[in-house]
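Troubleshooting: if your tokenizer reports a length mismatch, compare your output against this known-good record of 148 residues.
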Amino acid sequence: MTATAQLRDEHDRILRQASGLAGIVDRDLTRDLASEARAAIVGLDRLLVVHLTTEDDWMYPMLMASADQRVSAAAGACFQDMGGLLGAWLAYRDHWSAEAILSAPERFRAATRGVIGALALRIERENAELYPLVDRLAGGPSGSVGAV
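Known-good structure output:
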């Protein structure tokens, strides 16, 4: 198992939950669908906040502190580009109650597409660029997240 196996699994679960939310926004937002969208936001929040906090508080600082300039530069660039996602997510989560969704469905659609797009981009970059660095720093297949 790699050091990032758990984080990669979390990415998969986050993407599945986000996909469910994305499917809702393309429909006519009735009161029931607004409640369903809110429940999807809450479900995604349960997965996302812990995951992003782990990455922002542990993974990014560890990589940015690396003596390997390529590693620290890659992590710094990714964090610079995507480090504000947690704050953006929290603002989105706190704003979009079922009532807010019903009162501004087009704004909700745009906001949802934006936050899901940013989330998907971050996941893609981390899977392709950063997680391989974490695995390498952890010593390959025998490393675990706690061992990094």
